[in-house]
Design a protein that fits this description.
The chain is α+β, with helices and mostly antiparallel strands. The protein contains seven helices and 27 strands. A hairpin with a 2-residue loop joins strand 8 and strand 9. The longest helix is centred in the C-terminal third of the chain and has 19 residues. The two termini are 28 Å apart. It binds adenosine monophosphate and magnesium ion. The site of adenosine monophosphate has 19 residues, from helix 3.
Amino acid sequence: MLTETEALEHLLARVQPGPAETTRLLDALGRFSTADLLATLPLPGFDNSMMDGYAIQAAASADPSHLISVHAEQPAGIDLHLTCPPGKAVRIFTGAPMPAGADAVIMQEDVELVDDSIRCREPVQPGENVRRAGADLCRGQVMLRRGEKMTAGIIGLLASQGLEKVEVHSAPRVAVLSTGDELRRPGQPLEDGCIFNSNGPMLQALLAGLGIHEVRTAHCADDLEVTVSVLAELLASQDVLLLSGGVSVGDHDHIKPALAKLGIRPEIWRIKVRPGKPFLFAQSRHDERSTSTSIFGLPGNPVSAFITFHLFVRPALLRWMGASDVSPFTLMAGVSGRLHNDGDRPHYLRGSLKDGVFQTTGLQQSHALYALSQACALLRLDPGQTLEAGDAARILLLNTPTG
Ligand code: AMP
Ligand code: MG
């Protein structure tokens, strides 16, 4: 049985970034850049006013009795190439280019208007209320590195450069396959002993959190022949196959035998982690296309499927999508009460995080979906590890913008 670290290292070595594609800027949200992007325009693009007011030479504002004549007006959206000689002022508006010679803007609230002149009630300093060209971003500066994520802020920044399109790594074609005779879809009668399929929608939601929205879904019964044919069909068209259930060694667990029939050998099977031990990873080569399909077999128990998605599938998918950083988002928090792991595998506890304190949410068992639904954080306890109330621990955050 592999440790989490060994399993993750193996996965990240086996999954390669997918192809590049050029998309409209907005469609790149959540994707990862294929290249370093350098600014071609500085920000601000030119010296301009931060306020509605008067452009002056700051020294002229020192004497509150002194009258400064306003000799011109500079609106935003056009550069009149004005100059501001000593002792003169130019009426100016937010975002308008600074006249040559002026080194400050006095806010209109801080002046007294006397005919065509102003009196400065407050002195201004050189540079005050002036946005200098390139102070935020210089031409040639890196805006986004290869492998970094296109966030809303980055999309705004790229738009400021006049970019309409951008090259990112594509998202994988993913299928979610739910296995089990007991699974029913909404609207179907729920006979005794049956349950509604919750893993399928949950995995789709987790994929959507990574920006993977178009997902093929499938179900297969606990039957070897059916499993073989459903797998073969999905493998032919998908980059990634996420399946849940049927990966153990019960008489009704057909994933391993079905993969064997297709000539696919599991590279990972079972990981030393709780919940989530019966996890499987395999790859199916498509030599004619020089591509492969990555197969992730998640445990059927909902919490185990959720945890293994976060620990192993998420980083692998991020690698596929070209992300340079595939690590989860973590922070330090205190724990609300005593926590102990008396098992022989690391245990990921599910909990809430309030005012910097982690508290487990309900039943900590691998089928306990309600308790999971109330959690926004995971806490990893090593075998034998005990934490007392108030102890600090590293918490892995769920439901973050980074998925
Ligand atoms: P299995 O790994 O197939 O033995 O499934 C383990 C447990 O997970 C069983 O209680 C299954 O009913 C449950 N399970 C499997 N697949 C799903 C699913 N898609 N949604 C909800 N529960 C599931
Ligand atoms: Mg099953």
